[in-house]
């Protein structure tokens, strides 16, 4: 059974629920979900609950039913215990167990098949993300301070950003080149190994510097690397010339996610350096990355995987376009909530509902039965 058959619907379902539930818990509108009533808990579930489930669905490939059932059961246990009993031993064990099991399934196969160093960046960053996810419960229970949990979550955001830069480029560039070929033209700027290699180095440097943060030199290195990576990602996006595509809203949606990432990295680097931005600016930058980029790219990758599996063209489906617009609205509302204290509660609630609406569209597509192939007629033979 393919991993995406289990983890894509699970990730979409959890995305629909967890963001508005977390917003309500942090605003004091409910006391049912202790684990996501704080910014750290909210970030934990968005990254290590939702996003890591998407990674599992995207990277696992075919697995035995028993292996998938065990992975899924541990993931569900991790989510339930963190939501209701975040300080329990069960929550710590399950939230160490799932990323450890996932890395055990992914790392040997991916490292074994990657020959070039740039290709080895994928298993390396996936292993690092799983390691950070498994380390979070130890940091939470050993130190228990907001500063330490914030520190490790910043490293996780940098690693997920590296994954999005790598996978986004590998997905968007060939698809855009193929569309230009069908339009009778050519795209010279494709994957561009040199740019990809520099992006990998910059984001790896940023992640290491964030892990060593707390003093002037690592903070300056992280800031410079993040800003440089964001600017280079924006240049890469511009070189793909998405505005010249005809009849491919699906590729424009992927490009929107990549654009949010470029913007978010520049803002993240600027906020981390203190260039006229405070903690509020950092929070805004992180949500541009997570809601705008992580949400948009993961949603569209799941849509594309489902459509290709059912032999339908992503170019002829408008659902991802509507979902991408909803995620853009959610991102803008979250940014505005960071600056408008008077209406921030309302903006946060509406933004979370836009996010849920986008993933509700995705879940509808994932659960919709694939159309049956038409029977062959004599004139088709």
How would you describe this protein?
By secondary structure, this protein is mainly alpha-helical. 78% of the residues lie in helices and 0% in strands. It has twelve helices and no strands. It has helices at 3-26, 39-59, 65-84, 89-113, 117-142, 146-182, 193-211, 216-239, 249-273, 279-309, 319-339, 344-367. Helix 2 (39-59) packs antiparallel against helix 5, helix 3 packs antiparallel against helix 4 and helix 7 packs antiparallel against helix 8. The longest helix has 37 residues, at 146-182. It is globular. It starts with a helix and ends in a 14-residue tail after the last helix. The model has no long low-confidence stretch (mean pLDDT 89).
Summary of the model, kept short:
The protein is 78% helix and 0% strand. The model has no long low-confidence stretch (mean pLDDT 89). It contains 12 helices and no strands.
Our estimate of the beta-strand percent is: under 5%
Question: Overall pLDDT, averaged?
Answer: 89
Class derived from helix and strand content:
mainly alpha
What general outline do the C-alpha atoms trace?
globular
Number of helices in the DSSP assignment: 12
Q: Stretches where pLDDT falls below 50 for ≥5 residues?
A: none
Spell out the blueprint of helices and strands:
Layout: H1 3-26, H2 39-59, H3 65-84, H4 89-113, H5 117-142, H6 146-182, H7 193-211, H8 216-239, H9 249-273, H10 279-309, H11 319-339, H12 344-367
Helix pairs in contact: 1-2, 1-12, 2-3, 2-4, 2-5, 2-6, 2-10, 3-4, 4-5, 5-6, 6-7, 6-9, 6-10, 7-8, 8-9, 9-10, 10-11, 10-12, 11-12
